[in-house]
Design goal:
heterodimer; A: alpha+beta; rod-shaped; B: alpha/beta; TIM Barrel; three-stranded antiparallel sheet; 10 helices
Chain lengths: 62, 338
């Protein structure tokens, strides 16, 4: 039994959409998410220590 | 390969990388990794600043130490930094903090509102984001600046200006003054010695001046690398053409530091020659820093050459400005004076 033109087009569209959706999912997984603002963290990864006297000049340049 | 291994591989593949769009490096950061600045980290597919609210240094300095010579002279400025920097200058004077990993450093919890309260308690009229580079701790600097401005304080960025235009302009909205490093005039210089490029820095300077933020430029003169007459002339010309004659330019003395220990300190004569060249090129206010220099530390009126502000190192000995104008000829002097 032959395929009607409508069936043929339907299959093409479904196949095309499936490929496009697959590419989109893949691209979303592979491409990095872009960020301008970074969110804070709740815990500092280093040691927490008091800063000492702030009234004196810094030893750092600038 | 077993089934579990395959699932693990697929999961790893699916774990999202993030891209930081803050600075021109636009680091693509894998899960658990940080960008080049060491402080912006991909945690579970979200970009996080691990230094937000955690300064490693906080001090009250004279504003002249930044150096800022045309911004509230003689005042103290609450200055802070976190670890991390998006550039890696081989001559960095503060490399112990700028090139440190947060995991190996110590810091204190000082949220933005506490910084503002400290500045007010210490009667400091302004806050400086300095020592390392505020671009690396952008969100902390921005939020503190916003609160500071609401409290009537002024905000100062001491930066290499290596930032993308959109976030930079956003930060300028809450900034009163920017002291920006212009380290050299070529991409080659920036690539070899700082791991950056010059164009974004120049654009940041142009944007800062255009938005009305008070700007001062500093250039560290390193023997044999950027100390030729041509280097100095090109830089001075660029400042005059693109920023204006009014913008103060500081030539700073190099000292052997970090990964650049093989070069000698900059001779005073080189700095004097640089100052002369910049003045010849038409800049009005040219200073010499990191070394004692009588003329190179003072501000003179570009109209009548009267001594307006006499300085010694970081201290103002006399300031005869009258409402920001020369008392001799009445010329308005570029700066923020009150």
């Amino acid at each position: 039994m032959g395929m009607t033109r409508r069936d043929f087009l339907q299959r093409i569209i479904i196949a095309g959409s499936t490929v496009a959706a697959g590419c989109l999912v893949l691209a979303k997984a592979v491409l990095p998410k872009k960020f301008l603002w970074a969110k804070p963290v709740s815990k500092y990864p280093g040691r927490l220590e008091p800063l000492g006297s702030i009234t004196s000049q810094a030893k750092w340049s600038g | 390969m077993r089934g579990n291994d395959k699932i693990h591989l697929v999961r790893r593949f699916m774990k999202q990388k993030v891209q930081c769009e803050l600075c021109p490096k636009e680091c693509v950061i894998g899960p658990g990794q940080s960008g080049e600045c060491r402080v912006r980290v991909n945690i579970d597919g979200v970009l996080r600043s691990v230094v937000y609210g955690y300064p490693c240094s906080m001090n009250i300095d004279p504003v002249e130490k930044k150096p800022l010579f045309h911004f509230l002279p003689g005042t103290q400025i609450l200055s802070l930094a976190t670890v991390g920097c998006n550039l890696h200058c081989l001559n960095c004077q503060n490399w112990e903090i700028s090139q440190a990993n947060p995991e190996e450093s110590s810091a204190a919890l000082v949220p933005p509102e506490r910084v503002v309260a400290l500045a007010q308690q210490r009667k400091s009229p302004s806050i400086a984001y300095t020592y390392t580079d505020p671009i690396a701790y952008y969100e902390y600097a921005y939020d503190t600046s916003r609160l500071g401005r609401q409290a009537g304080l002024r905000n100062v960025l001491v930066t290499a200006g290596y930032c993308n235009p959109k976030p930079w302009r956003h930060l300028l909205e809450v900034t009163d003054a920017a002291r920006v490093d212009l380290k050299g005039m070529s991409d080659d210089f920036y690539r070899r010695f700082c791991s950056g490029t010059v164009r974004p820095v120049q654009q940041c300077l142009i944007d800062a001046v255009a938005t009305g933020v008070h700007v001062e430029v500093i250039n560290l003169i390193i023997p044999t690398l950027n100390d030729s007459e041509d280097d100095i002339r090109r830089l001075s010309r660029w400042v005059k053409t693109n920023l204006g004659s009014d913008i103060p330019l500081h030539f700073s003395r190099f000292f052997p530091q970090y990964k650049m220990q093989h070069l000698p300190p900059t001779p005073l004569e080189t700095l004097d020659v640089a100052r002369q060249i910049a003045l010849e090129e038409g800049l009005f206010y040219v200073y010499i820093g990191n070394i004692r220099s009588k003329e190179g530390e003072n501000t003179y009126c570009p109209g009548c050459h009267k001594l307006l502000i006499e300085r010694q190192e970081y201290f103002v000995l006399q300031n005869v400005l009258n409402n920001g104008c020369c008392p001799g000829c009445g010329k308005k002097i570029y700066g923020v004076w009150v």
